[in-house]
Write the structure tokens for this entry.
Amino acid sequence: MDWLREFAGRRVTLMGLGRFGGGVGAARFLARRGAVVTVTDLAPEQALVESIQQLEHAAIARFRLGEHYPEDFESAELIVASPAVLPGNRFLEIARQHGVPVVTELSLFVANCPATIVGVTGSYGKSTTAALLAAVLTQSHRSTGFRRCWLGGNIGGSLLDDVEQMQSDDVVVLELSSAQLHYLDELQWSPAGALVTSFSPNHLDWHRTTDAYRRAKQSILRWQKPADFAILNGMAAEPGDWETLGQCSRVVEPHRASGETPLVGPHFAIDASLAILAAEKLGVTADDISAGLRSFRGLRHRLEFVGEHRGKRFFNDSKATTPEASIAALNAFDSPVLLLAGGSSKGVDLRQFAEVIHQRTSAVALMGETADELRCHLQKRREQHGPGAKVFSSQSLREAFQWLASQSRSGDVILLSPGCASFDWFRNYEDRGDQFCRLVEQFATTKVPN
């Protein structure tokens, strides 16, 4: 991958500046390395003000905002595309027709990172597993000899701003999405350590077919070397379904130490088990593993306990953007659950999600683009199996929250776990979770009439 290390004087088009750090990190990195950078994004300048301000001191040759120009893709020597850009995009096809290679911000990182890289992927559970492993490795420098642990990738931000500080005795934990892996597969790259938390059809709006989605996920193992290692959740795929040249272990039950985390739910025990086994492969001692597990407080928006008010407990699981993640959240509670569910569609089957909602909740407020689909599935469950959950179709998160609060009583759990993406009503899942937390705060401070 030497061709992704030298950029002085090379014409590079960055496609998709975005608002979440990856585009900014790539633009700064390329400018530092002397590339002639064109930044292009379909969003207008006013929508990208924060990102543009972060590039104030970077030597960007030109900005093309509000539209793309074919010549920026025809004349470039390299395209760095946002992983949000769908395969088959006509501008990327223009680049390929002119022999211009297409990579992502993460491709630049792995080509220039001197440290050991451990990758974590899965349809759900990958953020928690990656963060848990990083917490354990941060405690382990005495026992493993690693100088420093870094956490990045799909979990947020860009590590390209830090890559010059990294050394060969560092370790990097990367959360890897299927879109990121799709592009990394073209580089024939897999990490030295690979963890797979789960597999079920997801992101079919991007990959179009389950087979294409599976192939992208499998690339985390496809190019491993014999000395590398891979750890799979035994429930994620049948034996032989995942290609690997490394030493593959399967987790089929929680590790004995997984209960040392403060997290709620059996699915988190599996996440912890994957992290523990990876840490053991990397030479971390049992004492350091225990210290790392105890230090971990969970991720924001991932079954996050928001508070208890008037005897009701509130949990923010906005990061649950797949049906399987929300099903795992519902199965984490013994108390009655009132659920906020739904959002923008990713083209996946919601019938099993509706089945569990029918079985495990007393009331559900449906939101967003998938509300009608979920309502239809729930209606069929009621016709076949009896009343089940009360169902309400809302026009806003506030309306959904207020209806559930009115239906709840002391001892109940009110859970935001949408099982769908957020982009119809919200900027992203963080925005959705933050709005939910503000509604909980308002509920806590509102006086109850005598």
User: Anything to note?
Assistant: The longest strand covers residues 36-41. The radius of gyration is 23 Å.
